[in-house]
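Holo prediction. Input below; ligand is iron/sulfur cluster.
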Amino acid sequence: MTYSEWFDAHATKHKTIIKKLLAQNFTSDQIIEYFEFSNMAKHEKEFCLLYETKKKCHDIAYLNCYFCACPHFRFKNDGIEKIEEKTKYSFCAIDAKDGALATYGDAIHQDCSNCEVPHSKKYIEQKFDLDWKNAMRECAL
Ligand code: SF4
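Structure of the complex:
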């Protein structure tokens, strides 16, 4: 699956949930809270493969899934640049201190596994957009 395929599929799932919550007159704050990990694992099992195992992608007490993925993620399906013999496909636009580039064979990808930036409620409130794709509009290069 390419980055774009994942983004499109995820955008559709996100949109479906937002539509359902708006139909129930959820406020923006209630929508953000709805995306808290344990609530999502209980009510939106299809949204993330990890929900079935109840295993969080980041081991933090409060984990909000509204911004999975992260607005700072940048990617290009066919590669951004060549680094020696390898191809870089993604990176972090703000060079977050807990992010890293990871090499998998001849491919280099952004590794966000130790970064918690997009998962706090405060961050989501600042970047909040009911249209997830619009919030992620700068991700695809
Ligand atoms: S390293 Fe952090 S801020 Fe950067 S793209 Fe990944 S999750 Fe977002």
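The two ends are 17 Å apart (CA to CA). That is the main takeaway for now.
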